[in-house]
Structure formats: structure tokens, C-alpha cells
Amino acid sequence: MDKGGKMFLTLAGAMSTAELGISVAELIRNDKVHGICCTGANLEEDVFNLVAHTHYERIPQYRALSAADEVALRDRGMNRVTDTCIPEDQAIRRIEDHVLELWKKADQAGESFFPYEFMYQLLGSGVLEGSYEIDPKDSWLLAAREKGLPIFVPGWEDSTLANIFTSHVISGDISRYGVVKTGVELMGFLVHWYKEITANSSLGFFQVGGGIAGDFPICVVPLIAQDLQEECRLWGYFAQISDSTTSYGSYSGAVPNEKITWGKLDSSTPSFIIESDATIVAPLIFNYVLGN
Questions:
Q1: Interatomic CA distance for residues 151 and 190, integer angstroms
Q2: CA 110 to the chain's CA centroid
Q3: Beta-strand pair 57-58/84-87
Q4: 3-state SS, residue 188
Q5: Which position among 9, 108, 179, 264 has the lowest Cβ density within 10 Å, counted as fewest Cβ atoms?
Q6: Nearest CA-CA partner of 279 in 50, 22, 35
Q7: Are 230 and 238 in contact (CB under 8 A)?
Q8: d(C-alpha 290, C-alpha 208), whole Å
Q9: Architecture field, domain 6-52+96-289
Q10: Which residues form a coiled coil (predicted)?
Q11: pLDDT per residue over 30-87, tens digit each?
């Protein structure tokens, strides 16, 4: 960054429910993040936490839960993510009707948007402002919207809101699936964005966790170089925080050198893996970058 470089951040799993927004939002506001790729869960769960935080329940001894304990949580509408339970009524159902109106509006206008654009529309409408239960400065999605950052959400289909969207198409409330742009359209968007942002600067790849949030965007480099056969700047660096150890075919646990053979990194690319808990390590690194 001191040399004019930029950073691309990927957020796997359910980091929003782990409240990573507290440090990520500050990074965004200080222009340390220039693009984000995240799971559908992270996109929606930042909003869930924004409007229902006081209704969340913590279960420190989650490993000791019995099947009967899990059933009891289910019957109370408490959806568990590791040691944190998201309340169905206060979080998910609180925003469903508002998002449905945005989907319907786009449908009727013959328009299509990416998942993050619908979330930006939701936050920009102001309908949720009276329901905020955390300090808005701790929402990374609000910070990203204020900065106009692109948020790439591959595999959005694997999320609560996507399930809800599908149900409304099947029931006829929405006439077409194309209201939400597809994953291949998302890759096309990423190609154009990557070429533009790397035209005059290096772009580093900082991966929190594994999974599709990291797998999807890192492929943009070989796509441009090998499939489009165009000149392409490689990722400026690769850094990952992961608790997935190297094993049989695990991409999340693959060492950075494996990416060299696929044309994603070079032998000279600064590469690092921190094998630890990202919910602990990421805030430490982010605050170091912020000078805290």
C-alpha cells in the first residue's frame, strides 16, 4: 500500500456472525480494502447482526450440545453457527419483506442486479435504520456501501436469502430467476474490474478462511491470461488465514505453491499462510495495518 498497491479481501464461512465487521469496516473506511469476495452467508449475516444483535445467543460449550439440545434450539427458531445462534424471527424474517419488495421492483422493471447491489439498495432505502442494534460503524457492509466497493458473492445460491428468493420464484411472487444475476455474470464483472484496477497498480490477495470466497476470485488471473489470452498482472501477493491443513485434495488447505501451476501466482509472489483461527488472527492483523 505504501507503494500504491491495493488489497482484495475474501471472507469465507460466517465471519460476519463472528463480528469481523468491527475491524473490517475500519479497514474499508481507511481505504485499505478495494474489493471484497464473500459467501452469501457473510453478505446477509452482516445485515442480520445489524438489526438483531441483542437477540443473538452465545453458546460457549457448543461442542457439548446433544442432538436433543439442537432440536430445542431449532424449535425456538435459533439457527446455530458454531457458538452463536441467529434468531429466525428477529433477524431473517425482519428483513425478508423488505428484500422481497426490491426483488419484485426489479422484476417488474425487467432489471437484474447482483446480490450485493440488492443489499446496497436495502441499506440505502433507510427502512432498517430504526432497527439497528449495533453501532453502524461496526457493519462492514455499510462501510463498503459508503465507499462504493464491489462485492463479489459466488455461490450466492447457498444462502438463506437465496433460498427465500427461490421459494418466491416457485410460488409466483417473482416471475424469473434472472432478477438476480448469475455466477458466470459475476465472473465477467470480476474480469473487467480486475483489469481496470490492476492497470496502474498491484492488487494483493488477502484470504480469510478457505472455500469459494477464495477459490472463485483467484481464478480471474488465469482466465484473463489463458482463456482470453491477454496480458495480465498476477496477484501482487497471497496471504491466507486458515485452519484447514494440507490434506487429500483440499483446496482450502493447499499450499500457495500449488497455485503457481495454475497460473494464479508466480514463484516470486510473496506468499504466506497462517494456520490458526481467523476470528482471532484477522482482527490482530487488520488492527496492525491500521496502526492500532
A1: 10
A2: 27
A3: antiparallel
A4: helix
A5: 108
A6: 22
A7: no
A8: 17
A9: 3-Layer(aba) Sandwich (3.40)
A10: none
A11: 999 999 999 999 999 999 999 999 999 999 899 999 999 999 999 999 999 999 999 9
pLDDT score, position 191? 98
pLDDT at position 256 is 84
Contact assessment for residue 78 and residue 194, using Cβ atoms and an 8 Å cutoff: no
Residue 61's beta-bridge partner residues? none
Q: Tell me if 259 sits within 8 A of 238, measured CB to CB.
A: yes
75 vs 243, higher pLDDT: 75
Is the confidence at residue 240, as pLDDT, over 80?
yes
Q: What is the mean pLDDT of residues 113-135?
A: 96
Residues in the chain: 292
pLDDT at residue number 253 = 67
Instruction: Quote the cell numbers at residue 237.
Output: 501477493
Instruction: Compute the distance between CA of residue 176 and CA of residue 99 in angstroms, rounded to an integer.
Output: 16
Q: Where are the domains of the chain?
A: 6-52+96-289
d(CA 165, CA 100): 8
CA distance 60 to 82: 9
In angstroms, the CA 161 to CA 77 distance is 16
CB 15 within 8 A of CB 42: yes
